[in-house]
TrEMBL record:
Annotated 4-amino-2-methyl-5-(diphosphooxymethyl)pyrimidine binding sites: Q35, L36, R37, D38, K39, N67, S105, K134
Signal peptide stretch: none
Organism: Methanosphaerula palustris (strain ATCC BAA-1556 / DSM 19958 / E1-9c)
Name of the protein this chain belongs to: Thiamine-phosphate synthase
Catalytic reaction(s) noted: 4-methyl-5-(2-phosphooxyethyl)-thiazole + 4-amino-2-methyl-5-(diphosphooxymethyl)pyrimidine + H(+) = thiamine phosphate + diphosphate; 2-(2-carboxy-4-methylthiazol-5-yl)ethyl phosphate + 4-amino-2-methyl-5-(diphosphooxymethyl)pyrimidine + 2 H(+) = thiamine phosphate + CO2 + diphosphate; 2-[(2R,5Z)-2-carboxy-4-methylthiazol-5(2H)-ylidene]ethyl phosphate + 4-amino-2-methyl-5-(diphosphooxymethyl)pyrimidine + 2 H(+) = thiamine phosphate + CO2 + diphosphate
Pathway of action: Cofactor biosynthesis; thiamine diphosphate biosynthesis; thiamine phosphate from 4-amino-2-methyl-5-diphosphomethylpyrimidine and 4-methyl-5-(2-phosphoethyl)-thiazole: step 1/1
Thiamine phosphate synthase/TenI domain sequence ranges: 5-185
Function according to Swiss-Prot or TrEMBL: Condenses 4-methyl-5-(beta-hydroxyethyl)thiazole monophosphate (THZ-P) and 2-methyl-4-amino-5-hydroxymethyl pyrimidine pyrophosphate (HMP-PP) to form thiamine monophosphate (TMP).
Any one Gene Ontology BP term: thiamine biosynthetic process
Enzyme Commission (EC) number: 2.5.1.3
Length: 209
């Protein structure tokens, strides 16, 4: 499954390490996907980081997704873009990027169904648990909604928000195709070790699904 462990970068939570450093260490530890996420960088700086991560992920055989910015995703040759409910509509992105992976944040079954109809390749339940890593993410939506999305949708369902080594096994056993994390990887002193630790738990949990 290409989305098992999906690592999202964040310059404010990375203990001073650059997007590219984080990406290189995470793919070395077995991350399947790297998402470049930076809410304050200029387009120029974001593109420079994207070019570096494109090279790193290609060498490692990992996917590369850009958060929010379809233009940066296309210009850097990324595999995909991740869009939230307030971002560019999926339908509009799909029109100009027929072959790109498009991921969408969803907070209900209705949003999930609409994302799929509009052309999403995966959805992420946002957030599964409340998290200090994104102040406007709101309350955790819980396992019942995760299970309902997994039952209902025809695309892989990921979960994001508050996921770490102590709860990831439960998330996979609830049916998620994978998990997206920031702090459980990028805020750890040893990013590769944290990534490989999470990945082992995910692979073990998948054996019982
Ligand atoms: C994998 C994944 N899931 C959810 C999000 C959140 O997207 P969004 O709601 O658009 O919020 P921002 O990340 O843009 O602040 C995500 N980025 N990645
Ligand atoms: C980027 C992001 N989006 C979320 C959402 O719910 O939409 S929660 C989140 C941050 C996830 O960070 P952590 O793994 O440290 O909890
Ligand atoms: Mg967004």
């Amino acid at each position: 499954m290409p989305y098992s462990l999906y690592v999202v970068t964040d310059p404010d939570l990375s203990l001073g390490r650059s997007h590219a450093e984080v990406a290189a260490l995470a793919v070395a530890g077995g991350a399947d996907v790297i998402q470049l996420r930076d809410k304050s960088a200029s387009g120029r700086d974001l593109f420079a980081a994207a070019e570096l991560i494109r090279t790193i992920t290609t060498s490692a055989g990992a996917l590369f997704i850009v958060n929010d910015r379809l233009d940066i995703a296309l210009a850097s040759g990324a595999d995909g873009v991740h869009l939230g409910q307030d971002d560019l509509p999926v339908r509009a992105a799909r029109k100009v990027a027929p072959d790109l992976i498009i991921g969408v944040s969803v907070g209900s079954v209705e949003e999930g169904r609409r994302a799929v109809v509009d052309g999403a390749d995966y959805v992420a339940l946002s957030p599964l648990f409340s998290t200090p890593s994104k102040i406007d993410a709101g309350a955790g939506r819980g396992f019942d909604l995760l299970a309902a999305l997994c039952d209902d949708l025809t695309v892989p369902v990921l979960a994001i928000g508050g996921i770490n080594a102590s709860n990831v096994s439960q998330v996979i056993r609830a049916g998620a195709a994978g998990v997206a994390v920031i702090s459980a990887v990028v805020s750890q002193p040893d990013i590769s070790k944290a990534t490989s630790g999470l990945k082992s738990i995910i692979l073990e949990a998948k054996k019982s699904v």
